[in-house]
Amino acid sequence: MSCCDLAAAGQLGKAGTMASDCEPALNQAESRNPTLERYLGALREAKNDSEQFAALLLVTKAVKAGDIDAKTRRRIFDAVGFTFPNRLLTTKEAPDGCPDHVLRALGVALLACFCSDPELAAHPQVLNKIPILSTFLTARGDPDDAARRSMIDDTYQCLTAVAGTARGPRHLIAGGTVSALCQAYLGHGYGFDQALALLVGLLAAAETQCWKEAEPDLLAVLRGLSEDFQKAEDASKFELCQLLPLFLPPTTVPPECLRDLQAGLARILGSKLSSWQRNPALKLAARLAHACGSDWIPAGSSGSKFLALLVNLACVEVRLALEETSSEVKEDVVTACYALMELGIQECTRCEQSLLKEPQKVQLVSVMKEAIGAVIHYLQQVGPEKQKEPFVFASVRILGAWLAEETSSLRKEVCQLLPFLVRYAKSLYEEVEETNDLSQQVANLAISPTTPGSTWPGDALRLLLPGWCHLTVEDGPREILIKEGAPSLLCKYFLQQWELTSPGHDTSVLPDSVEISLQTCCHIFLNLVVTAPGLIKRDACFTSLMNTLMTSLPALVQQQGRLLLAANVATLGLLMARLLSTSPTLQGTPASRGFFAAAILFLSQSHVARASPGSDQAVLALSPDYEGIWADLQELWFLGMQAFTGCVPLLPWLAPAALRSRWPQELLQLLASVSPNSVKPEMVAAYQGVLVELARANRLCREAMRLQAGEETASHYRMAALEQCLSEP
């Protein structure tokens, strides 16, 4: 038996591939090729390796390429089984005069034939060959050897068939196939293009697992592709535009790759292109913007011009797609343009180290305004049947990003769209609420505009909150939001998001957006407390909100790293307590006492006495926990002090409770221990406001303050109102 005869058996795999779509009936195959039936019988009856070899060769000769259908392949498998191919793949002894890879080639050819059957491709006996098959991709040998090339083709056929099964990608990744494919591609040997195609499929099916198992090898491929992209002068650069997004890692992209990708994109987008050439480049740029922000764009004149070009092209594309309602929208391209517009918004609003110069910012704001107008026009046409489509969500996202920074332009159009936005956000919120699956909701919080999928519940409110925060300050938009039921929806949303941070949930895995959403909700409620106090008093949802704030703050103020959220909750609760002071829940109940004790803790721990170098007297300074975030905290702190002051005369039990906490005594002690020159006038005013109201509300408070040298301290700080109050009986 010659090596050529053995290699000829490899035609089984090829015939199986070519006939994968041909399924003639078994009786037709028998009547058409009775010789094949005799040889299959011989194969079944073979008693040793030699007889199996001979029978396989006879079957091969009896079958012309394209004649093997699924049933015939299955009958060959029933006759051969896995034992014989297993031995061929692992044997180290070849017949005299044959290269050692010939037997392995026959074993792979048999597997390739079997893998044409999806059921066999998922068989454990195929799956456990994945590590062996993967080694064949990188094995050294004569590149012109026909048998070796045939074995490589059959190996890719096997691995591709496994990848097409339900759990195949997971098995391939675990079996080391990703690294083998990377090395095969980088080696540019025979079949390297098949390696890249299979890599693309695995990354599309299981991106996270691929990067976890083979990050160094995948980064090496990315470096190679990026370098090729930067150097390409022919049509291959457009093909690379489509491939490269799949190879961007979930972590940091290597700097050398970013340089090559940016240079390649600059050359492409700076040329006159057709849409089929430009669109993949825009999508690649969008992926880079989503992954790296603006870090991939170089500083200086070239970088600013490139960024301005990106945003201008994106805005033009959005307008062309959305203003012409008769044409079909290329949603993937427009969504990519949204990401580039969002990058433009971020850079236009950045005050320090922006890539853009001021004239460029002015020009980009103008073109983005026109594109946002097109987005609004599109959303006005959206009917109920389309509201769950990801592209609508992506359109709401870019509008939300714009409104977070700019609400003065397009005000009329925005106001006209507000009823739709409220209904849209409410419909998605209610869909999530009906599932009662908080873990799924958290997963959905991270959905990006480029995530594929047909329908899913998205967190639209998270995207709209910053814009609504600005709009609730203005009379017209605020009235529309109230009329459409936005406050009630926001209360429900706040309570739902708060549930995610409650005991029993692992807050360490929550995205930052949950806490940011809670803080932004608080800001909106603060606006409503100030501008629409009647709404707070009459809408029952705010009573529920107040109850949640009261029960939550005591634990929140004790948690490390959540001081800013605690400040929002405390200040909002204090302001609402002034409006809801007649509510039974605020009449000295355990919940109300716990809330005010926690609020006092937040207000009282902001400042400490600190030794001053070269001076005998200490100075008033921020406490360490407050110091790093005081810029974001101070407005809430002063508002909280003012709100607490307003609550004292409305709640008779509050002054005795404050006295039991020793806050007034410790506050006077703190002021007496520091230099009056170190206490800013606004601090003096805030402290005096609280002390005066406590002194006026309760005789025991006045006596405690006098015992703490309150009159003398008031005199030192020129607190005339406090000094007068303490001088009275």
TrEMBL record:
GO process terms (BP): bone resorption; neuron projection development; regulation of neuronal synaptic plasticity; regulation of postsynaptic neurotransmitter receptor internalization
InterPro entries in alphabetical order: ARM-type_fold, Neurochondrin
GO CC terms of this entry: cytosol; dendrite; glutamatergic synapse; membrane; postsynapse
Domain of life where this protein originates: Eukaryota
SUPFAM superfamilies linked to this entry: ARM repeat
The family this protein is said to belong to: Belongs to the neurochondrin family.
Name listed for the protein in its UniProt record: Neurochondrin
